[in-house]
Amino acid sequence: LPRIKHSNPVLSMEKQKNIPKLRFPDFSGEWEKIRLGAYIHIASGNSPSLYNLSEFGKYPFIKVEELNNCDKYQISSRFYTDDSQGIVEPLSIIFPKRGAAILNNKVRLNAVPVIMDSNLMAVKPISSRLDSEFLFYVIIKEKLFKIADTSTIPQINNKHIEPYRFFTPPLPEQQKIASFFSAIDQKISQLKRKKSLLEQYKKGVMQKIFSQEIRFKDDNGQEFPKWEKKKGDALFETVSNKNHKSDLPILAITQEYGAIPREMIDYYITVTEQSIESYKVVEKGDFIISLRSFQGGIEYSEYKGICSPAYIILRATRRIDHRFFKYYFKTDKYITDLNRKLEGIRDGKMISYKYFSEIKIDVPILPEQTKIANFLSAIDDKINHTQKQIEKVEVWKKGLMQQMFV
User: Fold this and answer.
1) What are the CA-CA distances from residue 49 to residues 94, 116, 178, 297, 398 (Å)?
2) Which of 217, 230, 290, 349 maximizes the CB count within 10 A of its CB?
3) pTM greater than the 0.90 cutoff
4) Angle at Cα 370 formed by Cα 364 and Cα 374, nearest 5°?
5) What does the alpha-carbon distance between residue 97 and residue 176 come to, in Å, rounded to a whole number?
6) Which of 282, 216, 218 is nearest to 244 (CA)?
7) How confident is the model at residue 5, as a pLDDT?
8) How far out from the chain centre does Cα 164 lie?
9) Residue 235 and residue 254: Cα distance in Å, rounded?
């Protein structure tokens, strides 16, 4: 990446007010404040007469939700159309006209011609004074809601865009800045791609392992015994220990993180001291039947805490590798079996311990459980390491954006 320098500290504060804190060494002088409307063309979206889910259409048709499917460049979409009315030229900056997507700063550049629906609009520089990619990063940094009217439902139209003012350097410096952040975005995209490939690999290999298409061997290179079929109640019992002093962390039962202290994920629900008294103790290694079992199965807890009495807590009655069952309970096959046992309740769907007990589970012997768990845990370690790399680069990028723009 290009070298950056700190702005000259000997300049007076008056002269430094329009100069970024970090700057490339080839550039100097103050940035100029310009009015956005003087340098851009504004386009509003309109739905084509015909579009479909086929990729055989000539142009991607972009809806607001499609902005979630890319990081910077909008290249493809679920929807395509041959309608050429209202084509948005490449390197236009696309963003929502209204709603929460404005607050979420959903801004994209289109790398190919696209058609966009009536809930979107686009701007494109019409002057050599302003670079498209630089403007994209300005809007990302400034945030859409600063341009929008947020007094009621957030909304943006021409009257908000045209008078908006921001600081900009000459075109060569804009292009240098845009190229620099594009390199960072490319690195982030590569890391996200790596994570996605690891997740796909994990999903595929899990299917083969738990269908026993892939089998592990013992340390002597010998085949492990055949897996046994066991009903749930032969492996787990339900427990309801309420013997606590309400001093344990309250656990949130989540699809993404399993059972985890609520403060770790900013998940807060007001509860009274009296209601907490009825909460159940969860030990590390317990499994919890989620109230949304139809979405993801049974959640594992690596924490000791308490949870709502509405949840069913499962505890192993024999020696097992808990990690094996953490993965097993997330397989498509097991979730399908679980869903067959759904019983309707007023607030949704729930699995009873009785129904859990009736589902047959394929169980290898403990040493093979551990081999499988170690293998899948190693993949998870790589996924988690890649996610931390992504977060580190994103934090670095955010800090640079605060210092490289006026």
Assistant:
1) 21, 12, 36, 42, 41
2) 290
3) no
4) 130
5) 30
6) 282
7) 57
8) 31
9) 23
